[in-house]
Each structure stands twice: as structure tokens, then as C-alpha cells.
Amino acid sequence: MILLSKKPDWLIEMEKRGERLRASRLLSQKKRLKEKTMKLKMSETVKGASDPSGSQVKEYQEGETYEVHESLARVFLKENWAEEVKAKKAAPENKAKGKAPENKAKK
């Protein structure tokens, strides 16, 4: 007996309705969301995959900032085609709006 990995119920239902292509796209989107990304500023104009599977290619323009999947980002960084953009920590917001209340204790 051969055991196959079970497909999610929503995927089986979509395939029954003839929505195989749409189901496939949704499944790949869910996988893509799990992929870690990095923010890069390009040093050169190069072509690279726009998704982790490599099925779509796009041109990354010099001077522009992009958020790309981690595996592509590592290649861009290794080849010195891009620099990583570090996220800046925002200054803590002052919770007190307006004038601070006065302490008036009655004795």
C-alpha cells in the first residue's frame, strides 16, 4: 500500500470545481509567505528571480530598494550587486499627550 501526503481539504474542493490553476496559485502564495525576506538597495542593475521558485524573472534597477526573498538576497550581497538596508528602530512614542497631571494630595 502506498501512502500519499494528504492535500488540504480546501485544495481538494477547488480541484473538484475545476479550479486547479487557482488552487495551485493559492498554495504557492502560502508557501511564499513563509519565505523570509531581506530589504536591499541595488548597487547595479541585474536580473533575478522575483519569487523563491525562480519561475518569474524581473530586473532590479540600480539605486532602487527592494524586498527580496532571502536566497536571492544572499546572492546579490555575495556578488556585491546590492547592500542590505538595516531597519531603523523608531523612537518610542510619548504616551502622555499634553500637560502632565499635577499631584494634589489632600491632607
Short description:
The protein is built from 3 helices and 5 strands, in the order H-H-E-E-E-E-H-E. With 107 residues, the protein is of the alpha+beta class. The chain has a domain at 11-84: Ribosomal Protein L9, domain 1 (3-Layer(aba) Sandwich).
Task: Give descriptors for this structure.
107 residues; alpha+beta; Ribosomal Protein L9, domain 1; three-stranded antiparallel β-sheet; two-stranded antiparallel ribbon; 3 helices; 30% helix; 21% strand; flat
Strand order in the largest sheet:
4-1-5
The name of the CATH architecture of the domain at 11-84 is 3-Layer(aba) Sandwich
Structural class call reads alpha+beta
Q: Roughly how much helix do the residues carry, as a percent range?
A: 25-40%
Quaternary assembly: single chain
Rg result: 24 Å
CATH C-level of the domain at 11-84: Alpha Beta
pLDDT averaged over residues: 77
Q: What sort of overall outline do the alpha carbons produce when their principal axes are compared?
A: flat
Please indicate the percent range of residues in DSSP E strands (runs of 2 or more).
Answer: 15-25%
Instruction: Examine the coordinates and then state which fold CATH places here, giving the name of the CATH topology of the domain at 11-84.
Output: Ribosomal Protein L9, domain 1
How is the main sheet built? 3 strands, antiparallel
Instruction: List how many beta strands DSSP finds.
Output: 5
Unreliable stretches covering 5 or more consecutive residues: none
Our count of helices gives 3
Helix and strand string, N-terminal first? HHEEEEHE
> How far is the first residue's CA from the last residue's CA?
85 Å
